[in-house]
Design brief:
Elements: H1 13-29, E1 33-39, H2 43-51, E2 55-62, E3 78-85
Antiparallel strand pairs: 1-3, 2-3
C-alpha cells in the first residue's frame, strides 16, 4: 500500500514514492509489469495512476468485507485492478 499524508500531497512525493517502488521491484525482483488495486470511490487516485501509465485491467471486484479490513461506508464500493508494463530501465531520480 502506498500512501501520502494529505498535508504533503501535491508536492511530487507520491510520484517519487511510486517511481521508487517500481524501480525496486524491477531491480530486485526482475518485475516485467506492475499491478495494483484502487478503490472505486477514489477517482482522483485512478486518474493519478493513469497519468503514470497504469491502465484498467478490466477486473472489478466487490470490496472484501469478509477480509476484516474495515467496513465501507458505501455498500457499492468496488476494487479496480490496474496494470502497467515496466519501462526498459529503472528511473534514475
Amino acid at each position: 500500500m502506498l500512501a501520502t499524508s494529505p498535508f504533503l500531497q501535491n508536492n511530487g512525493l507520491g510520484k517519487q514514492l511510486l517511481a521508487a517502488a517500481e524501480d525496486f521491484a524491477t531491480m530486485h525482483y526482475g518485475a516485467t509489469s506492475y499491478q495494483m488495486s484502487v478503490l472505486s470511490s477514489r477517482p482522483e487516485l485512478l486518474a493519478f495512476y493513469e497519468r503514470r501509465g497504469y491502465q484498467l485491467a478490466g477486473t472489478i471486484s466487490p470490496y472484501p468485507v469478509d477480509a476484516d479490513v474495515g467496513q465501507p461506508r458505501n455498500l457499492n464500493l468496488q476494487v479496480l485492478d490496474l496494470h502497467k508494463q515496466c519501462s526498459a530501465a529503472p528511473n534514475k531520480s
